[in-house]
Design a protein that fits this description.
The complex is a heterotrimer of chains A (487), B (345) and C (167). Chain B is built from 17 helices and no strands. With 345 residues, chain B is mainly alpha-helical. The N and C termini of chain C lie far apart (69 Å). The chains are: A alpha/beta (487), B mainly alpha (345), C alpha+beta (167).
């Protein structure tokens, strides 16, 4: 266990995790209805396999992946499919999204998926990837990227380095920490499965330096498994040390190219929760139908981590935690730095839901009135992507696509560090988030124009060439008549 | 239940432009106190007049631009401008000097370009440059510092206020008797008269390190500057670069000819070197953006300050040096964009 | 006096060297190429020329004005004006209009008779098909120039909002 160099930039901020890590993981109450959005993972929405009125059993596949990047979805409980219709979801606050709604019949009748796999020698790495896909496994670190797609595109000659991200840096979120404390063996099993699926030589589990119990539990689990390929790396607890690119730079001292993926430098990064989910699927035949969700904040009576079925309404989780306090003010899905603000609690837990903060005035530190940028540079001191946020802000009005591209707007990871330190209280992260689509559109149209120009020239050349060939053929046809007369 | 929503992040450090400006003003207190100790209370009236003018001018400009008054008047940036300008002017300067200089700085150097955060030039230095070029005589009429033999020409508080507001002195005194050049101005005059450096620096207007009185004031400014660094209001790049450049230039020329050129310690403790390094050049709005850019910017100011002091037409070069480097900030910024994560090293 | 002169010359030389050393090597780009880079490459001929490149050449030779490109709109007209050093002016109404969302051509496959007239008309080869075989427009390659619509004998081509675009 070695400590690596500190993250460049970033902030040391209060973690606010003590309240939610006091208790063991509890199980959330089961719900009357489960609402499962079909597009809750990155890539293409899944395609429904069931129809309205059909009875499904727990763990039964209810939607299959669309072609390309997509994932399976499974029923979290047995019951009847009462609807397949657009429903509000926390990741699509602009408009309801197509979801499968299952009414719980409270029987929890399980569906028998494929046989359990306990020993990896049973299957080849390729089969392991395919099997992981069928469990509906997606990244549980927040982006919900279909794991099998990631694994398939990460295979490289000598096998990539596997990095398990347990560096839970954002305040309030503690689901990974309690997972490491109580289910370290699941994580180690999942690590070994991933090592096999990737043909990777070793695995590094990265954790922050403020989680000693989790560290001890992981050490114990690794020793029990007796796998020397797995080791732990402790990183300083600075936000956002757990950002994928930042963590890779800290642990491996190598940067992911701005236009590439970690696989390009031979690294595969997975969340520890994803590894545990893989273990549940391969070893216990339970597909990804539930996950640990932290419920915390001064606006809720008890703060704890709940093993929650996908599709459970947030309101139910709040009720499990004793309900709101009188001080309840805002509901946030995620942590205090990057979490999505939610307008109400009648929204379902999705695979990407790692935390719900019921925030009161004590938790929140809202912005003061916005003043012009005084170019103090505090933002550039803390940016973990080495950007100049003051310059990005300068080139937003009027929108200067060329300079924004030059200064790396698309490299912004929206962590909010610049926002946090700004004396003028400018909502920088929000501005950058809003402007990225504008810049992408401008770059795309430039790209399309270049492609259209190339096709235009190619077509003209083709027509000229055909014209020249035609003329040559005509000339060829006329020549034999003139030859005899000249000879 | 319906909840209000606001974009992430949901916690931000409680900071404000007003707080930053207030700390700058607090850090200037030691300078002001020692200045008053050596040169009398004139400075206080200048600061008061300047601040009042600044706020009034700012209010007028904001009204004309149809912007809200309260947040901008409370942010303290106008008072910082006025205070820095007041520190650059002689303590007995007539009231219309600080008033016109401040009005020019706020109106033309700040609001004409778009107000807070948009001025490409340091407003205080623009105001000073305009005054220096328009009223050179008034700007060189400083007072002799306490510690020299000036008991007979010392003014009371009431007489000081009267002199500033009416331009007339009590009958027992004349302007010639009361005023005296600054150390840098005296040095320049003495060198022109053919004295060597050693002879020139032996004059009573010079203390141990630099100008009498001024050396203490500059040390107080240094203390304030270190406080600003410790509180992370400013970063080290500009002050270190500027002071290093002055030291390097001065040391070089001193080695070449100690008789004709003053040494580095003298340059650091005289004139506005330290005030410029920690309070003027570090104005973030008109300075370069990246750390590397700021090193170049600071070094440029240091070199130009030395050049103007030694070979230029004015006794102190900080103001023009700052303005010249303000001009080159877009060029510096263009070539010092730091490498972004994930882009080629 | 001499010292001042020497100092200024030294500073100017240093600044010049710094600029030259850090400047990126820029290839000589012809004026026509620079004008063409500003045009949207729709190849729609609304400007009365047979494509964007001929229009760029005409502007460079002074035989065309800078306000003849509706797909480029005000933005392109202003950029062209700035490049050519002339007064910007709004796009001339006589050159037609374009919808304010990206549009692509769509062939109604139930009506298409496979005559290849639209394939011959498309300036960027975005239509695939062969004689008496189904024709279809590759939406990703279509620039929205609408040149395929007049030649179609059965009038089966319409313009639709480009896929992935919200209204």
């Amino acid at each position: 266990m070695t400590s690596s160099q500190a993250l460049r930039g970033g902030l040391r901020i209060e973690a606010h995790k003590q309240r939610s890590t006091k208790h063991h993981i509890r199980t959330a109450s089961h719900s009357e209805h489960y609402v499962i959005p079909l597009d809750q993972h990155s890539g293409r929405p899944a395609l429904p396999l069931v129809k309205v009125g059909e009875h499904v059993r727990m763990y039964q596949p209810i939607a299959q992946p669309a072609p390309g990047i997509s994932a399976w979805l499974h029923a979290p409980a047995s019951g009847e499919v009462v609807a397949i219709e657009p429903r509000p979801a926390p990741h699509r606050l602009g408009a309801p999204t197509l979801s499968i709604v299952i009414a719980n019949d409270w029987c929890d009748e399980p569906f028998d998926n494929a046989a359990a796999i306990v020993s990896f020698e049973q299957i080849s790495p390729k089969e392991a990837c395919e099997h992981i896909a069928r469990g509906g496994i997606v990244g549980l670190g927040g982006a919900a990227f279909p794991t099998a797609n990631k694994l398939e595109s990460s295979l490289c000659e000598n096998g990539p380095q596997l990095l398990l991200n347990g560096a839970e840096c954002e305040p309030y979120i503690s689901c990974d920490e309690v997972l490491m404390r109580e289910r370290a063996e699941d994580i180690v099993f999942g690590a070994r499965a991933l090592l096999h699926a990737l043909c990777a030589p070793n695995c590094t589990i990265a954790i922050e330096d403020d989680v000693p119990e989790a560290q001890a539990a992981l050490v114990k689990a690794i020793d029990k498994a007796g796998d020397s390929r797995i080791r732990i790396r402790v990183v300083p607890a600075i936000y956002p040390a757990g950002g994928e690119r930042q963590l890779i730079a800290t642990v491996f001292d190598a940067e992911v190219p701005h236009d590439g993926l970690p696989a390009d430098i031979g690294v595969v990064c997975q969340n520890v929760g994803t590894a545990a989910a893989i273990a549940r699927w391969l070893r216990d035949r339970q597909p990804l139908v539930s996950r640990i969700v932290t419920v915390t904040g001064d606006g809720v009576r008890d703060a704890t981590n709940l093993e929650t079925r996908i599709g459970t309404p947030f309101a139910s989780l709040i009720a499990d935690c004793g309900g709101y306090t009188e001080r309840m003010s805002r509901l946030i899905m995620g942590g205090s730095m990057m979490g999505t603000p939610l307008p109400h609690d009648d929204l379902p837990v999705i695979k990407a839901t790692n935390c719900i903060v019921a925030a009161s005035a004590l938790d929140l530190q809202p912005r003061g009135p916005e003043m012009p940028c005084i170019r103090c540079g505090a933002c550039s001191q803390v940016c973990p992507a080495f950007l100049l946020p003051q310059q990005l802000y300068w080139y937003l009005q009027p929108f200067n696509g060329e300079q924004l591209e030059r200064h790396g707007l698309l490299d912004c990871i929206e962590c909010g560090c610049c926002d946090y330190v700004c004396p003028s209280q400018i909502p920088l992260a929000e501005r950058f988030r809003e402007s990225k689509p504008l810049l992408i559109r401008e770059l795309d149209s430039r790209h399309n124009a270049d492609a259209a120009r190339a096709r235009f020239y190619a077509r003209n050349e083709r027509l000229e060439r055909l014209e020249a060939e035609h003329r040559a053929k005509l000339a060829e046809k006329r020549r034999p008549k003139s030859e005899p007369s000249s000879s | 239940m319906i909840f209000p929503t606001a974009p992430a992040p949901h916690v931000v450090a409680p900071d404000s432009v007003g707080r930053v400006m207030r700390i700058v003003l607090y850090a200037l207190l030691p300078t002001v106190v020692l200045h008053v100790a050596f040169f009398g209370v004139g400075l206080l009236l200048q600061i008061a007049l300047g601040s009042a003018t600044a706020l009034v001018t700012e209010a007028v400009a904001l009204r004309l631009r149809r912007k809200p008054l309260e947040p901008f008047l409370k942010d303290g940036s106008a008072i910082v401008t006025a205070t820095l300008l007041a520190l650059c002017l002689p303590p007995l300067a007539p009231w219309w000097l600080i008033v016109s200089g401040t009005a020019f700085a706020i109106l033309l150097a700040k609001h004409l370009y778009g107000g807070l955060g948009a001025n490409p030039f340091n407003p205080a230095m623009v105001g000073y440059a305009v005054l220096l070029v328009s009223f050179p005589v008034q700007l060189l009429q400083w007072l002799p510092p306490a510690g020299m033999d000036i008991e007979h020409v010392k003014l009371t508080v009431g007489e000081t206020i009267g002199a500033i507001l009416t331009g007339s002195l009590p009958s027992r005194l004349t302007w010639d008797a009361v005023t005296s050049p600054t150390p840098l101005d005296a040095l320049r005059t003495n060198l022109k008269m053919g004295m060597t450096m050693a002879e020139a620096q032996a004059a009573p207007i010079f203390g141990t390190l630099g100008g009498r009185g001024w050396e203490w004031i500059n040390l107080a400014t240094l203390a304030g500057g270190i406080a600003l660094l410790a509180l992370r209001i400013i970063r080290w790049h500009i002050p270190v670069a500027m002071l290093s450049a002055i030291v390097v230039c001065a040391s070089l020329m001193y080695v070449v000819d100690p008789g004709a050129y003053a040494g580095p310690i003298f340059h650091l403790t005289s004139g506005a070197s330290l005030l410029g390094a920690f309070f003027i050049a570090t104005d973030p709005i008109s300075a370069a953006t990246s750390d590397r850019g700021r090193l170049i910017y600071g070094a440029g100011i240091g070199v130009l300050t030395y050049v103007i002091r030694t070979w230029g037409g004015y006794p102190d070069g900080v103001a023009f040096a700052v303005l010249l480097m303000n001009l080159s900030v877009p060029l510096i910024d263009r070539y010092t964009i730091p490498r972004i994560y994930g882009h080629a090293r | 006096m001499i010292t001042a002169l020497v100092t200024i010359i030294l500073l100017a030389t240093l600044a010049g060297l710094a600029t030259v050393a850090t400047a990126k090597h820029v290839e000589e780009i012809s004026l026509v190429d620079r004008i063409d880079a500003l045009l949207p490459q729709t190849q729609c001929r609304r400007c009365t020329f047979e494509g964007c490149r001929p229009y760029a050449e005409a502007i460079a030779h002074g035989t065309a004005d800078i306000n003849q490109c509706p797909p480029g709109g005000e933005r392109t007209a202003k950029a062209l004006a700035r490049l050519m050093g002339v007064e910007p002016k709004p796009v001339g109404k006589e050159f037609g209009t374009v919808p304010d969302y990206p549009a692509v051509a769509v062939i109604d496959e139930s009506t298409c008779i496979g005559c290849t007239k639209c394939i011959q008309a498309c300036p960027v080869d975005a239509i695939v098909g062969a004689s008496r075989h189904m024709h279809t427009v590759i939406a990703a390659d279509c620039t929205g120039c609408e040149l395929c619509i007049p030649p179609c004998p059965v009038d089966c081509i319409v313009m639709r909002p480009a896929p992935g675009v919200m209204q």
